[in-house]
Amino acid sequence: MSEATGKKAVLKLDGQEIELPIYSGTLGPDVIDVKDVLAAGHFTFDPGFMATAACESKITFIDGNKGILLHRGYPIDQLATKADYLETCYLLLNGELPTPEQKDEFDTKVRNHTMVHDQVSRFFNGFRRDAHPMAVMCGVVGALSAFYHNGLDVEDVNHREITAIRLIAKIPTLAAWTYKYTIGQPFIYPRNDLNYAENFLHMMFATPADRDYKVNPVLAKAMDRIFTLHADHEQNASTSTVRLAGSTGANPYACIAAGIAALWGPAHGGANEAVLTMLDEIGSVENVPEFMEKVKRKEVKLMGFGHRVYKNFDPRAKVMKQTCDEVLAALGINDPQLALAMELERIALSDQYFIERNLYPNVDFYSGIILKAIGIPTEMFTVIFALARTVGWISHWLEMHSSAYKIGRPRQLYTGPSARDINR
After folding, report:
1. Rounded to 5 degrees, what are φ and ψ at 60?
2. With contact defined as beta carbons under 8 Å apart, do 228 and 83 qualify?
3. Is 328:320 a contact under the CB 8 Å cutoff?
4. Catalytic: which of 71, 230, 307, 396?
5. Domain that holds residue 35
6. Strand, helix or coil at 21?
7. Same domain assignment for residues 288 and 216
């Protein structure tokens, strides 16, 4: 729990003074408790909730000015290089990294739930083949509640825990099937002899005709790191959406589907897709200098550089760059678009204009390049993001349901017409 600092803020309203307690967390700025403002007949006004702490959480801490991202206290770069994705999942869910025995047990649980009910596969036939993959994911994830309705009591801790495992295990299957459906290939079922990232890539790219298909270990490692680096990011738009939906008592599958819908927005989950779109618009390496001059003149936007939260550097980007270099070296790809991306990176890291403004390549820049190199189409990028972020969403949902909470009910500043009558 947060602790009272002993300090109070004093708000003067209509000749009266309201004392507002100030609370302190483990890290980050103190917060002012404004609940008593309501009793005085006022609301606070904070569009976008930029200065509002809507909940208490022990899961993730971000300091954008210092480039810090911690999961349960552990720096993200250490988790991405010294732990795998499922260990990070265990950490987010339980608060501590697993012992070897706990890791084996957790991995086994996840493997045992990677299959989905066979009738789920029929849901895909209701979508057009050219539907956006995120539209399909919203539908099929929400539909899971119709198949696991015997475990939807949000007040039952055992129901909550098994649902978390089911979601982490089944989302990769649904994501890979979404891809297979859009390209007209048969679904590939999960294999329990593969690790989490290997299993996903196998379901994505294997075919019944290629029984000897083997996942490149460099690509599996890269995929695992992408999952880890996107696992959680504190109270962002999609996580807040999951919490808000969860505060109504809605079933967890509906809550995660709501998170997927929020993530779909280009201002949130579409950043790495926007990088590839920008590269398409630039066209070739020869056009990069002119494009960067347009960026300086603010005529075009440089996608994948800088970050809305991280004002200094994105702590995930260094690991992602290393992974990007490993993937490109392993595949030996001679792709003009990737060469173009590397030239953008070179200029941004050497040109004083970009250095002074902290327009460094962020995690989305490198993850977009990696996913393209692996062979994942651009329209699937946000699906990969949703897959990785599912553990963050369900961790916040579990945290909310493990203690007292209130239904979310934001207020408004009404600026419409005052009361009036219909005169006929």
Report:
1. -135, 140
2. yes
3. no
4. 307
5. 3-53
6. strand
7. yes
